[in-house]
Design a protein that fits this description.
This protein is an all-alpha fold. The chain has 15 helices and no strands.
Length: 243
């Protein structure tokens, strides 16, 4: 396993990310909180084959945007997350990432709705930035992994809204499509190469990536129990489902 610790590189990415967050519409306080999360350090550690801060920003920007969507739309009631609003919000999130063809008079109001929502701006600009370094196939791979993740979020919202929480096996089935696998779709664009689709989507590769991604989110569930229990509408959590 290759390891790399380069704190100056991480700081450079984090500094650039905080500026970018402001450009997307997040306020100063939010940008500083994003800076403290250390997405730059995350990608520095996760991508030891890349020393280019501009390429590492691919992962920092998209992971920040995914986390923002999760917090503001899906998980944290104090930040405005509402299970009743989640599906239409995710519809616009998909549109921000993968804009449809122009539809005449219907396109301007759609673009205006996206432009006024900082989370949607971050998702769209994150994909635009990825497009500068990635092939169309790599871009769509990331988009559709994200959209699969959003389907799981919709299931969580229904369970949360009805209070009819799922058995652990059903939650785990959803969680496997809502994991750090989405972040792994960026490995080769950040590294500066292309994994052929037949290799990337080979069941052996996909299953290995799913196992790794799911293991990490289960640890995240474990560390998030206290926070989740404190929410007025607790999100679904593997530890809580087992309990």
């Amino acid at each position: 396993i290759t390891e790399r610790f380069n704190e100056p590189l991480a700081d450079e990415v984090d500094d650039r990310l905080a500026v970018w967050a402001l450009e997307c519409g997040f306020d100063e306080d939010e940008a500083q909180k994003i800076r403290k999360v250390r997405f730059g350090r995350l990608v520095m550690l996760a991508h030891p084959d890349c020393d280019d801060p501009s390429r590492l920003l691919i992962g920092a920007k998209l992971n920040m945007a995914w986390w923002a969507a999760d917090d503001y739309y899906a998980d944290d009631s104090e930040l405005g997350a509402d299970p009743k609003l989640l599906p239409p919000r995710l519809l616009l999130a998909m549109t921000a990432m993968d804009p449809p063809p122009p539809a005449g008079e219907f396109t301007p109001p759609l673009e205006a709705a996206i432009a006024e929502e900082r989370v949607l701006v971050a998702l769209g600009r994150g994909i635009d930035y990825l497009s500068q370094y990635a092939t169309p196939e790599q871009v769509q791979r990331t988009c559709y992994a994200t959209f699969s993740m959003f389907v799981s979020w919709g299931a969580y919202a229904a369970w949360r809204y009805t209070g009819d929480y799922p058995p652990a096996w059903k939650y785990l089935a959803a969680r496997q499509h809502d994991s750090f696998y989405t972040s792994m779709t960026l490995i080769d664009p950040i590294g500066g190469y292309v994994l052929p689709p037949d290799l990337f989507f080979d069941p052996r590769v996909r299953h290995a990536a799913f196992l790794a991604g799911t293991a990490v989110v289960l640890v995240n569930d474990l560390l998030s129990v206290a926070k989740d229990l404190a929410d007025e509408q607790p999100p679904v959590n593997m530890v809580l489902q087992i309990a």
